[in-house]
Amino acid sequence: MAELTHFYQTFQPEHYDIYLDINRATKTFSGQTKITGDAQTAAVSIHQKDFTVSAVQADGQDVPFKLDAENDAIRIDLAKAGKTTLAITYTAPLTDTMMGIYPSYYEVNGEKKQIIGTQFETNAARQAFPCVDEPEAKATFDLAIKFDEHADETIISNMPEVKTENGVHYFDTTVKMSTYLIAFAFGELQSKLTTTKSGVKVGVFGTKAHKANELDFALDIAKRAIEFYEDFYQTPYPLPHSWQLALPDFSAGAMENWGLVTYREAYLLLDPDNTALDMKQRVATVIAHELAHQWFGDLVTMKWWDDLWLNESFANMMEYVATDALEPDWHIWETFQTSEAAAALQRDATDGVQSVHVEVENPAEIDALFDGAIVYAKGARMLVMARALVGDDALRQGLKAYFNAHQYGNAQGKDLWAALGDASGMNVGAIMNSWLEQPGYPVVTASVVDGQLTLKQQQFFIGEGKEVGRQWQIPLNSNYDAAPEIMADTTVALGDYAALRSANGKPFRLNVGNNSHFIVKYDQTLLDDILANLDQLNAIDQLQLLQDLRLLAEGRQISYAAIVPLLSRFAASHSTVVNDALYRVASDLKKFVTPDSTEEAALRQLFDQLSADQVTRLGWAPQAGESNDDQLTRPYVLSAALYAKNAKAIADAHQLFVANRDSLATLPADTRVFVLRNEVQNYGSADLFDMLLTESRQTADASYKADICAALTSTQDAALVAKLIEKFEDADTIKPQDLRAWFRGVLASNAGQQAAWDWIRNDWQWLEDTVGGDMEFTTYITVIAGIFRTANRLAEFKAFFEPKLNTPGLTREIQMDTKVITSRVSLIEAEQAAVNTAIAEVVK
């Protein structure tokens, strides 16, 4: 049954006194929570989940109550409405689902250990203490924790510890905050601390399975990020400290708990001497994202989960704004183009996709809102558009006003638009709501019609799409002044093309910078002009051209076969973003070839032609003084050469493996995965498989662990595939948080696909029991949809998932991914012959 009434309507908390006594040995805890607040009615509802409640008192007197498990509720009958202090005594289990209060497992020198951590977003605080577990129900909190403590353990929380008495650790009263941001952790932790210019203590914490210097990079980024945000937001960081904690088991990437941010180890701790540049960038942007939330999400919180975008879209944009300020040489906005922009454009083109702002009530549906490509990536693109429109001065002025007006409270999207509108003098909301409230995005067709340069907008679809006349207010960002700043109409005529071309002296282009959320379809006249002047385009322009052509081909508006002859024109680029776009198109051609066919051999030859000169230029080893672009491009071209079965590349990789057999972790991190994968695929054995699996279990280096995953899952040996799948449910070998990557790797392998598909269908209930409570669960369906490409697999997908359509939280994902596979199957059937002919022409 859907939860239709927000519990905040019955009881409005002001302060919590929370006492917890946690026993790791029995995996249980007991507690008493006192909640002082205002009962709006005599019958009030408080959230709980999986509690055994022994007593409920109101102002010291026992009162009637009953547990309503279906709605995660304690229903309490008071004598009257008004100011009340509830006291609830209960016991509950620790979980192994990475939600609520849960243990994280790790090993040090072969000894198994655990630390206790928490994860309460979206609505799992109710698994730790009774509360009104809704974002609007902000209150202050006093936290007291006792646990089965032994020597050399540390406990941390949102606020500093103020005293310890009789084994109970007491923490300072929090500021007014939402329940989902409470956090604590304890165990054998190491830390490194520093202080910002304004006096905020900053710390990085991790288990002792890691070397001390693995904390250094994160500490530096966190300190400088807080200093940057205090200046950019013109609002002080509101708490005494900012702790960053790496948890060995963590379902998401990171979580912005106020004052105690939790992370997957892979996204906080790194080896400063051997971590790939792109991984350093990833860690920096994750830290910057979570610290952006300390203001945007924590200080001011969305009123309800339908405005989740208000938290996540903004933090997603700000992670790039901050990282660009901290490390300008990284050119991090290029990464935004290859990750966020690409993800948003692909996902948002499927009919039925959610809009950025989504109505939601049922708690089971809330986690389904966390669509990374929409709420994070599209929302961030939307805010990048807004930033470009209003400018940084107005953005900062508007944000300062927004924080002043809503600090320690809640807000809605309209409040942000109002603040930015007041600061800029623009009706920001009118422009942005066309992007916020509508799913999808437009393709703007630019064509010369009867001599007139004409623009037309229409919704773009990949696969079947129902045209319902949606229109957007599109920031065109044209290089011709004749184009309006905002295109709000369906069609716009810009004037005589010949005269405009002559006056401007360059090809006509739209969305210069690729910051607006639309794609462009140029007619042949305009496209030929751009291609004839390709050397005038900068790296982002070239990325955009390839990106838009690829999407138009996906949407059947042009043929993939028409793009194939163009690819070689981009192959010599030293730019990472151009190579990313180039190999994205080239990899998309793989769906048109059958494994081990002559067509696949021709495609491999194409990959060899595209990559050969770059592999010769860059080689396998990092070179002193090489550019960031060269570091980041090397993996693209080496991967292409190995797919091409280039004999020298295969031999070079094998030689590197042999030379470093006893110290594989020390191979250069940006190429190590290719060395390992090449060895498994071309020189594999059961002994090698066992050795790498043991290395994966024993290493605390998350990057190395991920490389081993990529290598082992690519095995073509059916017996080793079966052995690997046996380990899927062995948490000592493959942690549940990492399982999706292992599953995807096997599913994507021709030798492993059937076995992986059989496993997930046979053991779906185990998967749901293990990770079904977190927001990553639906992405297993997304992973399958990203790989399947035949009519038979589509039929099997539908047969398995359609009976689950009414499962709360799965409905939209199943519907979306059925369309994704359907459109891919249709595209392959229509284009396969033409694409393979085009490839054969290019490589002959």
TrEMBL record:
Gene3D superfamilies: 1.25.50.20, 2.60.40.1910, Neutral Protease Domain 2 (1.10.390.10), tricorn interacting facor f3 domain (2.60.40.1730)
Family annotation (SUPFAM superfamilies): Leukotriene A4 hydrolase N-terminal domain, Metalloproteases ('zincins'), catalytic domain
Domain Aminopeptidase N-like N-terminal: 12-181
GO molecular function per UniProt: hydrolase activity
Domain of life: Bacteria
Catalysed reactions listed for this entry: Release of an N-terminal amino acid, Xaa-|-Yaa- from a peptide, amide or arylamide. Xaa is preferably Ala, but may be most amino acids including Pro (slow action). When a terminal hydrophobic residue is followed by a prolyl residue, the two may be released as an intact Xaa-Pro dipeptide
Domain ERAP1-like C-terminal: 510-817
InterPro entries (UniProt xref): Aminopeptidase_N-like_N, Aminopeptidase_N-like_N_sf, ERAP1-like_C_dom, M1_APN-typ, Peptidase_M1, Peptidase_M1_aminopeptidases, Peptidase_M1_dom, Peptidase_M4/M1_CTD_sf
CDD domains according to UniProt: M1_APN-Q_like
Cofactor requirement: Zn(2+)
Keywords: Aminopeptidase, Hydrolase, Metal-binding, Metalloprotease, Protease, Zinc
Cofactor note: Binds 1 zinc ion per subunit.
Family: Belongs to the peptidase M1 family.
Protein name: Aminopeptidase
